[in-house]
């Protein structure tokens, strides 16, 4: 390599950091998404360095070579698509700033991926998990409230972790959730979920908060035994504990979200209403659940129709 090659993309790296700040502070992307964009851009700029490519003056041919490199390295199609999406967003932002154009990325094709139907769980499985909570103590009351709220709202685990006590409106029987891009949506809750949350907030959460030893305020709805705000990872561990305790195979917090959507559609809910409840920006994202609900209706018809057993 020429001696000046390590500095070839110094300006690109400066702009990449500025772009990540833009995603975080202007577009209001989650920290997880910002880190993913940063990782993808770092790897791309390292490839540019190795290949002697100036990222701010990249050509279609060079970008196709990058895609070929990812394929040879046996990256999954889903990963390649994610990296291409990150590059398109980055170059679009650069184009707006007058630092580069999107001409090269506009022609980049994505990888076609077979769309897998989301996995769901049964209501009986969820009932067993909730029933496994020992709600006679503070931790059991907290965990029961968490599982009830997760099932009642169809929320992402990150949205549950960011909830504050005041986000629950007991009079209106609803919860205010803040999803991607900090977009707020209101989801109605049924009474058993409200009762579990109210019981936890009034009878268990104060005792957990009082255990806090470090400086600061525990302001999250769900707090740990040390009085700290519970992260999405901590809540996932709670979920996994009760999944194993109840003998439920393969379920995740996101499985509960899939189940929430599928049950609503199977019960006759309007697709756009489900889109709003899930916080999806695009209706096409919600439409995948229609395949699951149609399958469920087919099963019901096969069992219930008087002539179904003849076929």
N-to-C series of helices and strands: HHHHHHHHEEEHHHHH
Shape, per Cα inertia axes: globular
Number of DSSP helical runs: 13
Low confidence ranges = 1-5
The overall strand count is 3
Major β-sheet strand ordering: 1-2-3
Report the span from N to C terminus: 72 Å
User: Largest sheet, described in full?
Assistant: 3 strands, antiparallel
Q: What structural category characterises the helix and strand content?
A: mainly alpha
Task: Describe the structure in your own words.
- There is one protein chain.
- By secondary structure, the protein is mainly alpha-helical.
- The chain has 13 helices and three strands; from the N terminus they run H-H-H-H-H-H-H-H-E-E-E-H-H-H-H-H.
- Strands 1-2-3 form a three-stranded antiparallel sheet, with no helix packed on it.
- Helix 1 (10-25) packs antiparallel against helix 2, helix 6 (123-131) crosses helix 10 (232-246) and helix 7 runs antiparallel to helix 9 (191-209).
- It is globular.
- Mean pLDDT is 84; it is low at 1-5.
Fold blueprint:
Elements: H1 10-25, H2 31-51, H3 60-72, H4 77-97, H5 103-106, H6 123-131, H7 138-153, H8 157-161, E1 168-169, E2 174-178, E3 184-188, H9 191-209, H10 232-246, H11 253-266, H12 271-278, H13 283-304
Antiparallel strand pairs: 1-2, 2-3
């Amino acid at each position: 390599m020429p001696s000046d090659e390590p500095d070839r993309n110094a300006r690109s790296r400066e702009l990449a950091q500025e772009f990540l700040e833009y995603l975080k502070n202007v577009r209001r992307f989650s920290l997880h998404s910002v880190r993913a964009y940063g990782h993808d851009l770092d790897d791309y700029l390292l490839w540019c360095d190795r290949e002697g490519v100036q990222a701010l003056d990249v050509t279609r041919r060079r970008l196709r070579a990058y895609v070929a490199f990812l394929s040879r390295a046996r990256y999954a199609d889903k990963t390649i698509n994610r990296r291409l999406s990150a590059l398109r967003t980055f170059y679009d932002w650069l184009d707006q700033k007058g630092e580069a154009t999107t001409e090269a990325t506009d022609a980049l094709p994505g990888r076609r991926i077979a769309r897998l139907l989301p996995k769901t769980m049964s209501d009986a499985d969820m009932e067993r998990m909730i029933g496994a909570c020992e709600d006679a103590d503070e931790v059991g009351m907290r965990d029961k409230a968490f599982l009830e709220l997760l099932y009642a709202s169809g929320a992402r685990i990150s949205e549950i972790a960011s909830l504050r006590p005041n986000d629950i409106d007991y009079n209106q029987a609803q919860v205010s959730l803040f999803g991607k891009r900090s977009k707020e949506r209101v989801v109605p809750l049924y009474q058993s979920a409200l009762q579990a949350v109210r019981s936890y907030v009034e009878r268990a959460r104060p005792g957990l908060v009082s255990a806090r030893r470090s400086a600061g305020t525990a302001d999250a709805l769900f707090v740990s035994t040390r009085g700290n705000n519970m992260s999405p990872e901590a809540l996932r561990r709670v979920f996994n504990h009760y999944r194993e305790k109840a003998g439920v195979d393969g379920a995740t917090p996101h499985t509960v979200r899939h189940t929430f959507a599928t049950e609503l559609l199977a019960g006759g809910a309007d697709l756009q209403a489900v889109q709003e409840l899930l916080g999806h920006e695009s209706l096409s994202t919600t439409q995948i659940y229609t395949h699951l609900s149609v399958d469920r209706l087919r099963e019901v018809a096969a069992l219930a129709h008087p002539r179904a057993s003849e076929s």
